[in-house]
Design a protein that fits this description.
globular; mainly alpha
């Protein structure tokens, strides 16, 4: 829990910094770079820490992680920051004003729906791998790490598309094939299911990069960090909500119905995009 809180702080601060220093046409690439860096850290540490834990035990992971965090904390202090002078603003009133806008409300709802599927997948995939594919813990770790590493090219390409093709088109490029791929999972009962699964993960990062760029677009520069972090926090409601109910859904409706549910979640997202005024 504390780890996720720390990651959210870092993500909010770095994204706010990106909004301040990036032009409108570079926000997609900036968002892609942020998510790609996150994917690198998750993917590599998943592999390295799994090997360390198997050989030396799990307890040693915690001091190693702490030492790594302290080491990386040096970077912000040696990086030149372009300081922007800001007038003292009544932040609370401005935040209320921004969230009364229909576009901001739509983007907030969009974030919840987009992250809902991710929350289900992050919990459901390892359970499926264990129960149906009968993979052991080490094999599940490798499969998960491979999926995480796909976030590197997925985030960069998604960010590029968000700037080149526009935010909406990038969402459609990911959501439409993703919907059909979720349905296709029903027809697999072997290790071959990893092929559509990895494609879903890969193009799913298009959505993330485009959503971050969209959030940057609508953020009021006078309250950059506050408004952006609120949008991220609201989006995380979907992610953690999906994570919480996944076990219950698997027990009640099974994996095939869960795959179809994931496909159905994309339909209101596509419809919402149709009526949301964001950068095309």
């Amino acid at each position: 829990m504390a780890g996720h809180v720390g990651i959210t702080f870092l993500m909010s601060a770095s994204s706010a910094w990106a909004i301040d220093i990036c032009s409108e046409n570079d926000r997609g690439k900036a968002s892609g770079a942020l998510k790609a860096g996150e994917a690198i850290s998750y993917g590599l540490t998943a592999v390295i820490f799994s090997l360390i834990a198997l050989n030396f035990g799990y307890r040693i992971i915690f001091p190693i992680t702490s030492a790594g965090i302290l080491l990386f904390l040096i970077l912000p202090f040696i990086t030149n920051e372009v300081k922007i002078k800001r007038k003292k603003e009544k932040i609370f009133k401005k935040v209320i004003f921004e969230f009364r806008k229909k576009t901001t409300q739509f983007v907030a709802i969009l974030g919840i729906l987009l992250s809902l599927g991710g929350g289900i997948i992050i919990i459901g995939a390892p359970i499926f791998a264990r129960v149906f594919l009968e993979l052991n813990v080490a094999q599940i770790g490798i499969v998960s790490a491979a999926g995480l590493l796909l976030g590197i090219p997925g985030s960069y390409i998604g960010g590029y598309l968000a700037d080149k093709k526009g935010r909406k088109k990038t969402f459609y490029i990911a959501l439409i094939p993703q919907t059909f791929l979720f349905v296709s999972l029903v027809f697999f009962d072997s290790i071959l299911i990893l092929l559509p699964y990895y494609i879903i993960i890969f193009i799913g990062h298009f959505n993330t990069a485009s959503y971050l760029a969209t959030s940057m677009d609508i953020t009021n520069k006078k309250i950059t960090a506050t408004q952006f972090s609120l949008l991220l926090s609201i989006a995380n409601i979907g992610y953690f909500g999906g994570s919480v109910v996944t076990g219950y859904l698997i027990a009640k409706i099974g994996f095939d119905s869960l795959f179809l549910l994931l496909a159905l979640i994309n339909i209101p997202i596509i419809l919402l995009l149709r009526y949301t005024k964001i950068k095309k």
